[in-house]
Amino acid sequence: MKVLVVNAGSSSLKYQLFDMENGSVLAKGLCERIGIDGVITHKRPGKENYKSSAELGDHKAAITLVLNLLCDPELGVISSISEIGAVGHRVAHGGERLRASSVIGDAEIEYLESIVEINPLHGPPAISGIKACKSVMPNVKHVGVFDTSYYSTVEEKAYIYPIPYELYEKYKIRRYGFHGTSHRFVCAKAMEMLGNKDAKVITCHLGNGSSITASVGGKAVDTSMGFTPQEGVPMGTRSGSVDPTVVTYIMKKEGITADEAEKLLNSKSGLLGVSGVSSDCRDVLIAQGEGNKRAALAMDILVHYIKKIIGSYIAEMNGVDALVFTAGIGENDGIVRDLICKDMSYLGIEIDNDINLKLPRGTQADITKAGAKVRTLVIPTDEEYMIALDTFNLVK
Ligand code: AMP
């Protein structure tokens, strides 16, 4: 069966077509600037990329163009849409009800619409993407794979905030967790590498957005992101956790609204906010190398918070068998991995820098120092494959 994976953003639509016989990617690409002046990039392994401007008024126009390209005699990889057996949709938020990957019918869309208020950024484009795909591919099943659903095993004590309980009942304010599909994928790979189905694993998804998850036997027990992807460790432009009073104090002192305060913490903080240089870890590291003190401080803060979360999860699980790094920074940046793992020998974490610092991009590797109690692994994430696999398993 061939499965199309779709990830719809507010002005973008990413796609990958998988052949589930062998898990290979037949084609993938990205529609950008939807609703503005559309651009599509279409890639097929081993062949030249195709990039073109296009009329992309909305998600429906984008998916129609994608399907035309996939079936194109020259640029395509299938002869007709009917070869696509199912469509898997990445959905950031499944709320409290969509706790596992599910076939999306009218009831599911209605529920997703009802929780847009707690997912205002990612909800509307995801729903619009699903509706567009359903309208042009009405004869196949559409499956939603939710970033939040991996956290359905987290206990109440870890997801209820210590605020008046009625606010949870009234507004569903609780910790949901995000990046779940990525954590689920790399955690499963780590357990496979360890040959241990009950392993205690801490997965560090460190990219532009970052989160850390603790899992036992492939079931999440805690995660650093909460009600929104704003909680947890500092990120490219997000602050991560700060004393909540800091927010109300800034609002009073700067005379800004709640929305403006949210924007400040979401898009002007983190690595960018502290360094004043960039949200991109590579730029901040270069600036640090050139002697920029605030860039150095931004990196110190990032590493400090990540270490604190790792330590707390080891305490929560009464141990850890594997520490895993993934996503843009986690997969590619040996220096950051080294900084995080430094001075954790008491906890059994020690890495071999002969391997760690020389690791080529996108490589799966065991970077553990010989004799260390805890295995430290680098595992490239593949959320799209996980979405394709869930979709295939649900519809086959
Ligand atoms: P992601 O959100 O997973 O795409 O990750 C983006 C982050 O990964 C940015 O902060 C990049 O600086 C970082 N990143 C990507 N490639 C590298 C690399 N080769 N070395 C260091 N950091 C990288």
Features:
15 helices; Nucleotidyltransferase, domain 5; 396 residues; eight-stranded mixed sheet; alpha/beta; binds adenosine monophosphate; six-stranded mixed sheet
Description of the molecule:
It is a single chain. With 396 residues, the chain is of the alpha/beta class. The model has no long low-confidence stretch (mean pLDDT 97). Helix 10 packs across helix 11. The chain folds into two domains: 145 residues, 2-Layer Sandwich (Nucleotidyltransferase, domain 5), CATH 3.30.420; 189 residues, ATPase, nucleotide binding domain (Nucleotidyltransferase, domain 5, 2-Layer Sandwich), CATH 3.30.420. The strands form two sheets. It has an eight-stranded mixed sheet, sandwiched between helices. It has a six-stranded mixed sheet with strand order 11-10-9-12-14-13, with helices on both faces. Helix content is 39%, strand content 20%. It contains 15 helices and 14 strands. It binds adenosine monophosphate. The site of adenosine monophosphate has 12 residues, from helix 10 and helix 12.
